[in-house]
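Morning!

As promised:
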Amino acid sequence: MLTIFFAKNKLIIIYGTSLAALLFLLKWLEYRFVIISNAFEIYIGAIAVIFMTLGIWLALKLTKPKIKTVIVEVEKEVFVTSNPNFVFNENELNKLGISKRELDVLELMSAGLSNNEIAEKLFVSLNTVKTHSSKLFEKLDVKRRTQAIEKLNA
Amino acid sequence: MLTIFFAKNKLIIIYGTSLAALLFLLKWLEYRFVIISNAFEIYIGAIAVIFMTLGIWLALKLTKPKIKTVIVEVEKEVFVTSNPNFVFNENELNKLGISKRELDVLELMSAGLSNNEIAEKLFVSLNTVKTHSSKLFEKLDVKRRTQAIEKLNA
DNA sequence: TTTTCCTTCATACTTTTGGGTGATTTTAAA
DNA sequence: TTTAAAATCACCCAAAAGTATGAAGGAAAA
């Protein structure tokens, strides 16, 4: 528990400690050089510089990098020998707003599986498959699974 | 040229100016409060805080936000289609002993028609279509019309 | 001529599919 | 933080599909 606390706040602890050490140093410097009235401005300047440096360092250390996700589309050529089924995919299906899961159902459906078999294969209930297929038919503008298959193979 | 310089280094100029202003302020403060020896530490502390804040602010303002770019490569499948070869010719169908009428049903079935629609198109009753399709499934060794379609398109 | 197959159709029953609605949870986006 | 979409599942109901069995007329083959 305590070690976790230390690990989590390591940076802050280090900073606090070094700050304390610095204050001691300053106190020491005070008794050594402050007598020279001329050195006062230098002293102030030194403090300013040190703390500003500290501030900059702190800020740079503590700011979390913003994560910017860049999605790069890499074209991958797929040579289709005798599978016109999935040409439909990227081009048309995305336009119709067919989700990934619906696509899964569609593929298994066109493979001739029953809703029950699809449910087993996808580890979901029969009702879920029905819901997906219903929405699928809506989006594909068909009435039956056989028509959906036709649209896929057309 | 000069304006561009100002625009580019606007922040630095602002910072420099405000730093100068602050020094004037400090100088002024020096003559007002430094006499109180007791206030010396407070003075130092104030400077430390001000400059550290300044440093933090400066660091946050001047540094370009750390951007950790995560490149996610998404494979975009480009289908280079060759010849889809799907002809379930008469020879194969005849081998399976599929009759002419059954073939009619099969074709309409694979076109996505329902049994009722097939019945209307062929001018026979629904029961007849069912009989044909049942025998069809037997001969094709499938359980569903979707599988029959698959076999046709495979 | 008997047999076989095709075609047609019916009845009865079961299974599968599809529509509609609504709830919950998760995930992604604004 | 709020909103929206996706994914999950349930329940009910209706339509479609599929199975089993039987029957009858017609064509072709044994």
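Helices of chain B lie at 2-8, 10-33, 40-62, 90-95, 100-110, 115-122, 126-140, 145-153.

Hope this helps with the figure draft.
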